[in-house]
Amino acid sequence: MVATPIGNLRDISLRALDVLARADLIAAEDTRNTSRLLSHFAISGKLFAFHEHNERQATQRLLAVLESGKSVALASDAGTPGISDPGAFLVGAARAAGIPVVPVPGANAAVCALSAAGIEAPHFLFYGFLPNKGSARRRELEALKGLPYTLVFYESPHRIMDCVCDLSEVLGGERTITFGRELTKVFETVHSVRLGDAPAWLEADPNRQRGEFVLLISGAQPAPSEPVSEQGRRLLSALLAELPLKQAVRIAAEVGGEKKNALYTLALKLKSEHG
Hints:
By secondary structure, the protein is of the alpha/beta class. It is built from 11 helices and 8 strands. The chain has helices at residues 14-22, 31-40, 55-67, 88-96, 109-117, 134-144, 160-171, 198-203, 230-240, 245-256, 260-273; strands at 25-28, 47-49, 72-75, 124-129, 150-155, 176-181, 189-194, 213-217. The termini are far apart.
């Protein structure tokens, strides 16, 4: 599994070049693209077309090659095979057949964008490509909108405007979106903007809608907890003096009508303050 550059050809690793040069067969998502890569590094290799339209049939042919004792290097057009690109089915079949699968790591567009975005949140969810159709895309976003993690999507130029409009509509305009466009290429752009302002930013310059995109959306903010009233606070304090914490919280919620979660948080605080 050979990761290839997402733009700048110098991002390929020395190990990847060694593997490509030594492989008996190179399975490529697009043989024309991989041929240009090999030519650039003066590598001659036997190419085999392996893409989303023939993955299952081609897997059987590649398994036969592997079982004969030969080596196969799998390379997608850009980035790591099997990550929003063909490869997972072949890997599963090879592992099931007892054939070793060796990852050769390298460029990855999502991680590349995250490293340059300055997002301090430590967790992110990589989704990849959203559905093409607007209705299906919005349904997926509804399922993701409450997650507190940075959301990472890939998008193509001809859908970028529709996608960003749906993101703003479903997730809300106050979140931040960071565009990673044409990463490692000549017109590389990393730009952050309020999600509600993102469609206008794209429209301001037609060039901003060109190229391949990584979209980083800030995660959902937790809903503010409702404060406990002064009356509820006094009731809870009195109950805590006589009862275990959980029982005091339950009774305070039943009697005072306060939110149990808010009372529980307050109870922990009162307990710590009074030892």
